[in-house]
Amino acid sequence: MPDSLNSLAATDLPGTAQLLSALPVPVVLLDERERFRFANPAAELFLGLSTASLAQMHLTDLLPEDSRLPALVRQVRAADAPISDHDLILHSPRIHREGVAAHGAPLPEMPGAVVLTLQDGSTAQKLDRQMNFRGAARGASAMAAMLAHEVKNPLSGIRGAAQLLEQAASEDDRELCVLIQDEADRIRDLVERMDMFSERPLEREAVNIHEVLDHVRRIAGTGFAAHLRILQEYDPSLPPVWGNRDQLVQVLLNLVKNAAEAVDPREGEIVLTTAYRHGVRLAIPGSRERVHLPLEVTVRDNGPGIDEEVRASLFDPFITTKRGGQGLGLALVAKLVADHGGLIECESRPGRTVFRLSLAKPPASAPQPQGRARARQTA
Q1: Which PANTHER family did the record assign (predicted)?
Q2: Cα separation of 307 and 370, whole Å?
């Protein structure tokens, strides 16, 4: 079999191959033995494999034989007619995508061959969820304002009254007065934490995200993650991020701290990565604006994973799996990422949890930051 999928396809089907290569939708061609005979550039990006790698593979090398996509290919071949399927999960050691729509059709020019088009429905879901995160953040902000106005003033009166009563109270009653003061302080602290969600103008500049990650790693390595191995895998050619440095530090510090608390203290590992994803421009629901978010930053850990039921509402306020946690950390992360016009997603299974940030480049007129981080570092 030739080393190049596209050269083979161009020999067999020159006009078809040229047309499919220009499509922004992932397209692959499978022969009668389910070998990959063609993959357009969008499919390479979607599958995370080059044409040279795919040229050596069958579909069942990529996905288990009993999964729904190989079954769809067999159905197309048996019926000799187009067939579609939706909400597929493509899961194997090589790939993990959810909410995929697939359409298979026979190719008359090649008996037994099937053309597959794949669409990642999770892109639209990401945008919808991001809008939900913004709504949740605004709701938390409104709640903070209400609590500050309606609760903090009465709390001051309650605490002051408890202090006065403590002076003339018996020993047993004095303990109750101290308890009232402590609980008043706890409620006040919660209200002040909620104030972090308030809407404030975001000052942005070109930020070297590698320097931000190095700073976060140093903080973690000398504190809460001193006992863990932290790896850094950087794309050294990555352009700057258009953002607020302090808030990006806050976002990544939260994610690394969560990872450190989730992993086994003896075998835990956290990996920080950056990459440039060409991707596509995304339309924001309800707007003519299109955003390009090619800069990807991930925080990956080898902890036990996050339950599927929890993942659905992971970024909502007051959702937490930590004992004594208040569930505001990831809600704040989602709010800050949304303020940057970016996306945040979580993929998780036992032994692997990935928080993925997609961020924008600076406008062409923005001053560029100085310095680059090393491509790879290991702690």
Answers
A1: PEROXIDE STRESS-ACTIVATED HISTIDINE KINASE MAK3, SENSOR HISTIDINE KINASE
A2: 41
pLDDT digits (tens, 9 = 90+) for 224-260: 898 899 999 999 989 999 999 988 998 999 999 999 9
Both tokens of residue 323? 């004992």
Q: ∠211-311-331 over CA atoms, to 5°?
A: 55
- Cα–Cα nearest to 113, from 57, 27, 29, 51: 29
Domains of the chain, residue spans:
5-120, 125-197, 205-378
> What pLDDT shows up at residue 145?
61
Q: What angle do CA 77, 96, 132 make, to 5 degrees?
A: 115
**Secondary element (H or E) of residue 373:** none
166-184 pLDDT per residue, tens:
888 888 888 888 888 888 8
CATH number of 205-378: 3.30.565.10
Model confidence pTM above 0.85? no
CATH superfamily assigned to domain 5-120: PAS domain (3.30.450.20)
* Amino acid type, 302: N
Q: Is 279 left (phi over 0), alpha (psi -120 to 50) or beta?
A: left
Report how far residue 305's alpha carbon sits from residue 327's, in angstroms, rounded to the nearest whole number. Answer: 17
Residue found under tokens 């924001």: 284
Q: How far, in Å, CA of 362 to CA of 241, rounded?
A: 6
Q: Residue 245 corresponds to which tokens in the numbers above?
A: 């440095």
Q: What DSSP designation does 131 have?
A: H
> 51, 6 in Cβ contact below 8 A?
yes
CA distance 16 to 77: 20
Write the CB contacts of 156 (distance below 8 Å, at least 6 apart in sequence). Answer: none
Tell me the average pLDDT of the chain. Answer: 79
The structure tokens listed for 57 are 């593979």
